[in-house]
């Protein structure tokens, strides 16, 4: 009996240690280890090139069309152009198909890239596992990988997305990626919310760090699509180095299917994947009225069919709601422009990065304000998205820990720890979002929320009993 009382008191103490209640939601007082985020040295095993002369490296895949039957395969050959061909076949079949891609190089200040290949596989079967082979014809140094296409878009198709942002290439980045890969929730596609390599933090934006990042992420990105969003660290805008055009390394290395959604830029586009419709926006491109991004998004809403793809997700880099002190209000201009559309069209979740910490909002909106009416506080709004800030991948700039106090009422949970998210769609009405901090075991959920689809379950009903 005494033991159980002691245990109960201990658990209560632990609980009180972990959370404290403020005016808003929960601000976790979990204290992570104090190790500073250091980039992994260049000779780290995760950066090691594959063996063999000119072997394909930095392999990554992303969706290659609007529906999910296309796949863009990208890779780098360091020494010579080599083969541009991707051979691919259905698991268990001996019948190989092949398709020819393109190759390009770019220069950045004194850096010249390797040979960057992009190849689009089209008309793949839905829900099918394929193998693909690169480098055939270049001697014996070909490499083979595998991927699985999504199910055909449909309202009750279960599908699991991982979410990572601001990853960089530190020891913490390595932990984040390893935890994502080992999470038993098994993300099938990764939604990456911007800020990839952080090469621009090096003298002269050392683009060698783009190459190391490509090799570091290959272990996941060669086997499941990473859906790319551009962040501020993709700008690489450096007039003092003679680099006057933004996004050159990023746009050279990471191709996306923007034309399939009628976009005129790879920085904003949309895809359907299983039961989700995903809109990718660019925080660092013009987005005011009459700009190409605005005009594209204005037409985009009518294309979303919630009967086919019930879950409407938006990815962007800079969050619209953020109660950390760092980057405070940076997303405000975009919020003023686009939040009314998000509410009107019942976006389910907006995922963003940029802030190196984690935060999840309540369903709230701040669209009533018109400068003169004084209605400038966010209010509870069942048509509004949940905003998830998840720029806690682990880059060399470290965590943001300073928060605005008191916690705003729209903020449901916030914590300054590195980690990743999982968005697990069960059917047209229910999805389970979880956030996993790196300090915990692979299967442990640090924060979670059952989400009711805004189109199919616009009013609150009791959530399912468990995940
Ligand atoms: Fe950022």
UniProtKB/TrEMBL annotation:
<keyword id="KW-0378">Hydrolase</keyword>
<feature type="domain" description="Fibronectin type-III">
    <location>
        <begin position="55"/>
        <end position="152"/>
    </location>
</feature>
<keyword id="KW-0408">Iron</keyword>
<dbReference type="Pfam" id="PF16656">
    <property type="entry name" value="Pur_ac_phosph_N"/>
</dbReference>
<dbReference type="InterPro" id="IPR015914">
    <property type="entry name" value="PAPs_N"/>
</dbReference>
<feature type="signal peptide">
    <location>
        <begin position="1"/>
        <end position="21"/>
    </location>
</feature>
<keyword id="KW-0325">Glycoprotein</keyword>
<dbReference type="Pfam" id="PF14008">
    <property type="entry name" value="Metallophos_C"/>
</dbReference>
<dbReference type="InterPro" id="IPR003961">
    <property type="entry name" value="FN3_dom"/>
</dbReference>
<dbReference type="GO" id="GO:0046872">
    <property type="term" value="F:metal ion binding"/>
</dbReference>
<keyword id="KW-0862">Zinc</keyword>
<dbReference type="InterPro" id="IPR008963">
    <property type="entry name" value="Purple_acid_Pase-like_N"/>
</dbReference>
<protein>
    <recommendedName>
        <fullName>Purple acid phosphatase</fullName>
        <ecNumber>3.1.3.2</ecNumber>
    </recommendedName>
</protein>
<keyword id="KW-0732">Signal</keyword>
<dbReference type="InterPro" id="IPR004843">
    <property type="entry name" value="Calcineurin-like_PHP"/>
</dbReference>
<dbReference type="InterPro" id="IPR041792">
    <property type="entry name" value="MPP_PAP"/>
</dbReference>
<dbReference type="Pfam" id="PF00149">
    <property type="entry name" value="Metallophos"/>
</dbReference>
<comment type="similarity">
    <text>Belongs to the metallophosphoesterase superfamily. Purple acid phosphatase family.</text>
</comment>
<dbReference type="InterPro" id="IPR025733">
    <property type="entry name" value="PAPs_C"/>
</dbReference>
<keyword id="KW-0479">Metal-binding</keyword>
<dbReference type="InterPro" id="IPR029052">
    <property type="entry name" value="Metallo-depent_PP-like"/>
</dbReference>
<dbReference type="InterPro" id="IPR039331">
    <property type="entry name" value="PAPs-like"/>
</dbReference>
<dbReference type="GO" id="GO:0003993">
    <property type="term" value="F:acid phosphatase activity"/>
</dbReference>
